[in-house]
């Protein structure tokens, strides 16, 4: 399973809000909603988030193996 927990930790660490991502950087509110609920996002979106946040992919998603 993919977890977006690192994304929210990165936002907090960098003092960036979801509002900023949506209204200043153009990330769709639907994308943020999908991430909050654990749904998939595209690699293009992942790349965009990495660029905006200036971080590696591991600061946005993590893989948690099923038990």
Structure explained in plain terms:
- With 67 residues, the protein is mainly alpha-helical.
- The protein is 52% helix and 6% strand.
- Strands 1-2 form a two-stranded antiparallel ribbon.
- The longest helix has 11 residues.
- The protein is globular.
Q: Report the helical percentage.
A: 40-55%
Distance between the termini: 10 Å
Task: Give the overall shape, derived from the CA principal axes.
Answer: globular
How many structural domains are formed by the residues? 1
Number of strands: 2
Strand content: 5-15%
Query: Taking all residues together, what is the mean pLDDT?
Result: 96
Structural class: mainly alpha
Identify the strand order in the major beta sheet: 1-2
Secondary-structure element order, N to C: EHHHHE
Helical stretch tally: 4
Give a brief outline of the structure:
This protein has 67 residues and is mostly helical. The chain contains four helices and two strands; from the N terminus they run E-H-H-H-H-E.
Record the SSE blueprint.
Layout lengths: L1 E2 L1 H10 L3 H6 L5 H8 L6 H11 L8 E2 L4
Antiparallel strand pairs: 1-2
Q: What attributes characterize this protein structure?
A:
single chain; 67 residues; mainly alpha; 434 Repressor (Amino-terminal Domain); two-stranded antiparallel sheet; 4 helices; 2 strands; 52% helix; 6% strand; globular
